[in-house]
Amino acid sequence: MKVIIAAAGTGGHINPGIAIADLIKSEYPNSNIRFIATGKKLEEDLISKAGYKSYAIEAYGFSKKINIDNIKKTIKTIKGFKEAKKILKEFKPDLVIGTGGYICGAVIYSAHKLKIPTILHESNAYPGLAIRMLRKKADTILVGIEEAKKYLKSAKRVIYTGTPTKVKPIDLTIKEKDKIRKEEKINKDLPLVLVFGGSQGAQKINNCIVDIIKEKKNDKYQIIWATGKEQYEIIKEELKECSINIEKANNAIIRPYIYNMNDIMSLSDLVVARSGALTLTELALLGKPAIFIPLPSSSANRQEDNARVFEKRGAAKIILNSDVTSTNLNDTIEEIIFNKDLLKNMSQASKSLAVYDVEERILNEIRKLVG
């Protein structure tokens, strides 16, 4: 089977595309899968490291503002439609899948015109503009959060599948837990709070955690914190100014990035994070309570929409980015982490939002289109 996957812009678009590509490969080992992206470094790194080749075309969102820059982008986007059509004609895929980003406009529209079966996957509670605009063109739209269906009522077919991710539910033995704690220098006698803001980090969250550590507010709980690679050295120097060694901070394990996230998330009692779609998926699969600090957006607050789904079920507390301080973040952590009944209820609510057969649901929809 030959498959084209269109994904660009952010890891939240590209990683589900890679997960679906891996899923297809596991079911159809002889498949030939290519990506179409925009050629940005993040996209190239993720796609190539996953073992896939990609084409690059330019694609931008259409703006109502009329200026030279937007005119140039519009011309490049129109050219991208032609390039997408040319790629599809030459590659002759049996299926075209879009997982987000403006790139989907050119690729899915061209596939529709060429009568190639198409699938779109939307991870967020509120679908992106490209997904909404293409809802009548795609043969099937798969959604990661059930609430997204209400925005796609005029689509041909919308199926709730969940979002594919590499994080899986694991039942660690006591011996395995002790081994991880020893390797990561985690104190098993203190509740563990996992903090992260994505691969690049989250400035507002990081500022709050720095203050919590400086003021020793975390004297009764332990933090394991992924700062983001770009911010690690800055935070290191900031703590140094307060005579705090980043490698010996009180009740805090600070890393640029956590590579064994599945293990660390499984051990954690509470998670503080942004509320991207993949993060929500992973937390639900592992049944983890969360404090979400959604990334604000001037166009659409997708992360807040995602977080509200968990909040309504009782799986998370929300502090808006504009409101968060080290004081109210610490107060919310303590409110949850030391209340065993609340932790248990939030954990159960989180698990209720998980989809444990994502792969099979997605494969079923692929089979319906290509056999």
Write the layout of secondary structure elements.
Blueprint: E1 2-6, H1 11-27, E2 32-37, H2 41-49, E3 53-56, H3 68-91, E4 95-98, H4 103-113, E5 118-122, H5 129-133, E6 140-143, E7 158-160, H6 174-184, E8 192-196, H7 203-214, E9 222-226, H8 229-240, E10 252-255, H9 261-267, E11 270-273, H10 277-286, E12 290-292, H11 302-313, E13 316-318, H12 326-337, H13 340-351, H14 358-370
Parallel strand pairs: 1-2, 1-4, 2-3, 4-5, 5-6, 6-7, 8-9, 8-11, 9-10, 11-12, 12-13
Helix pairs in contact: 1-2, 3-4, 7-8, 7-12, 10-13
Q: What proportion of the residues is helical, as a percent range?
A: 40-55%
- SSE-based structural type: alpha/beta
CATH-derived architecture of the largest domain: 3-Layer(aba) Sandwich
User: Major β-sheet, in short?
Assistant: 7 strands, parallel
Arithmetic mean of pLDDT = 92
> Could you give me the name of the CATH homologous superfamily of the largest domain?
Glycogen Phosphorylase B
State the CATH class of the largest domain. Alpha Beta
Poorly predicted spans: none
For the CA atoms, what is the radius of gyration?
Answer: 22 Å
Beta-strand share of residues: 5-15%
What overall form do the CA principal axes indicate? globular
Q: How many separate helices?
A: 14
The ordered H/E elements are: EHEHEHEHEHEEHEHEHEHEHEHEHHH
Secondary structure: number of strands: 13
In which order are the strands of the major sheet placed? Answer: 3-2-1-4-5-6-7
CATH topology of the largest domain: Rossmann fold
Report what the structure shows.
This protein is an alpha/beta fold and 371 residues long. The protein has two domains: 175 residues, 3-Layer(aba) Sandwich (Rossmann fold); 178 residues, Glycogen Phosphorylase B (Rossmann fold). Helix content is 45%, strand content 15%. The protein contains 14 helices and 13 strands. The strands form two sheets. Strands 3-2-1-4-5-6-7 form a seven-stranded parallel sheet, with helices on both faces.
